[in-house]
Amino acid sequence: MTRISTTGGPQMLMQRFMENYKKAWETRDEFLLASLFTEDGQYHNTPFAVQTGHTQIKQYWQRVKLQTDIVLTFDILHAEALGGIAHWHTTYQVTSEEMFAMWAASTGTSQLARQPGDPLPRLALDGVAVAEFEAGGLCRDFRIWWHSVVET
Description:
With about 150 residues, the protein is an alpha+beta fold. The protein has helices spanning about 10-25, 30-35, 55-60, 95-105, and strands spanning about 35-45, 50, 65-80, 85-95, 120-135, 140-150. Helix content is about 30%, strand content about 40%.
């Protein structure tokens, strides 16, 4: 199991977590993502959905395999000994109708404006993340709130 270094103060813990979160998303690596969490860690991808434990987190992360050209940036807004808040921004190219349908359903966006055969969109997501860590540096609770738009 990967341990995140807690040396360097509270800013470093949140910074390292977000660097690894970025890498897990950009490389579409569900194993890296799960390794950032405790065995019973929780990933709240919306306020109404939670994945608990490594198996559920890895299953949820399969959806990023339907994305390409992923770019994630972030800024740490607040950090303390066992937690922090970050602002993040991600862009990616949707690669399948399935991914587009998942995105449209999660945002409540109507698919009526898109005609069959139209090019799949590039999406931009902007959000805030709140992380709580255990003493060893693994995340026990990660919550994100985000909005998305089709990039023009």
